[in-house]
């Protein structure tokens, strides 16, 4: 891992169980490194795993494989300094 990296995503994969017992692979082998001052856009089709990747980075979900590091420390749950703004009112729908 590069010491200058703020965020390092290494070989991350994520799958979800399907009703038939098989796994639905959403992300596979994702690598990303962000350094101070970078501006990054995450683009992809609907259902391509953009929100899943952001949830993994924010510590709101665990990867099925690979690692996410923030400031050199593994992300194993919500990390101080990482925030996520939801696209819809996910927490308090009445507000």
Characterise the protein shown here.
There is one protein chain. The protein contains one helix and four strands, in the order ββαββ. By secondary structure, the chain is mainly β. The chain has a four-stranded antiparallel sheet with strand order 2-1-3-4, with helices on one face. The longest helix is centred in the middle third of the chain and has 9 residues, at about 50-60. The chain is globular and about 45 Å long. About 15% of the residues are buried.
In short:
Helix content is 9%, strand content 36%. The chain has 95 residues and is mainly beta.
List the helices and strands and how they pair.
Layout: E1 5-17, E2 23-35, H1 50-58, E3 65-70, E4 73-74
Antiparallel strand pairs: 1-2, 1-3, 3-4
Q: Key terms for this structure?
A:
95 residues; mainly beta; four-stranded antiparallel sheet; globular
The helix count comes to 1
Ranges where pLDDT stays below 50 over 5 or more residues in a row are none
Radius of gyration of CA atoms, rounded to a whole number: 14 Å
General form: globular
SS-derived structural category? mainly beta
Q: What's the number of extended β-strand segments? A: 4
| Main beta sheet | 4 strands, antiparallel
Beta-strand residue percentage: 35-45%
| Mean model confidence by pLDDT | 89
Q: Tell me the distance between the termini.
A: 42 Å
Helix proportion: under 10%
Order of helices and strands: EEHEE
Sheet with the most strands: spatial strand order: 2-1-3-4
């Amino acid at each position: 891992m590069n010491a200058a990296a703020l965020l390092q995503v290494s070989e991350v994969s994520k799958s979800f169980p399907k009703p038939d017992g098989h796994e639905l692979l959403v992300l596979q082998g994702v690598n990303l490194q962000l350094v101070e001052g970078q501006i990054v856009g995450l683009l992809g089709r609907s259902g391509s795993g953009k929100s899943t990747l952001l949830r993994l980075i924010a510590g709101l979900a665990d990867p099925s494989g690979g690692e996410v590091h923030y400031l050199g420390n593994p992300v194993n749950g919500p990390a101080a300094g990482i925030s996520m703004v939801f696209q819809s009112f996910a927490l308090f729908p009445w507000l």
